[in-house]
Amino acid sequence: MDKFSLIEKYFEGTLSVSEQEEFDKFLDTDVEFKKEFEFQKDVQNAIRKNTKLDLKEELKALEKESFPRKDKKKYSQYLKIAASVVVLLSVGIHFLLNSNTVNSEAIYEEHFAPFENVVRPIVRGEESEDKEFKAFLSYEQQAYKKALVLFDELYSKSKKTHLLLYKANCLLQLNNTEQAIESLEDYLKTENAYADKAHWYLGLSNLKLGNTEKAKENFKQLQELGTYKKNTVDEILNEL
Fold this sequence. Notes:
Structural class: mainly alpha
Shape: globular
Helix content: over 70%
Distance between the termini: 38 Å
Order of helices and strands: HHHHHHHHHHHHH
Number of helices: 13
């Protein structure tokens, strides 16, 4: 598969586990790939926030700013895609792209950040063969696939429910949103120490899937708790 096709699949949410690994590798090591990804992300944002008439000018500005003339040939494939988006908008898709689902995805992108490691903080230079240490080290290093496997193994043996919260965050990073929701709901059935965080990530997960009403329920439950991201939750509910 052409490596730039991975970016298209990323935005479609259709990357397999192996493709996600390739994507992460290119993003970390390939300057051109990262530049293309950032350009496409800017285009996505332009589509969401602009009217049809403004979009063409926005795309032109992004193209000029992001890629010098000598580099344009390398990125012609995506520029054609961007141009096709403009054509689709001209026949009415613009209204679909500005629907609640698209806005919900934008809110998710704006507010999602993985839950910090408050259970097993890693000290610089620390080494251990302990599986929990390895799991959280992988998590902090953003090796989410490896961390997910370790969290799964740890939970199977210990049934420590906080592991479900970190498992859900790994799944979100790997674009497995529905499984993340299952993990968060399982957590709330048995534990309430991090209930506010679970509701927060449930709300964001449902936004990512376009389940706006469910997301509202999650955020309202978090609002009632009044202990986590209160102002942000108020703002999101106002937007919804």
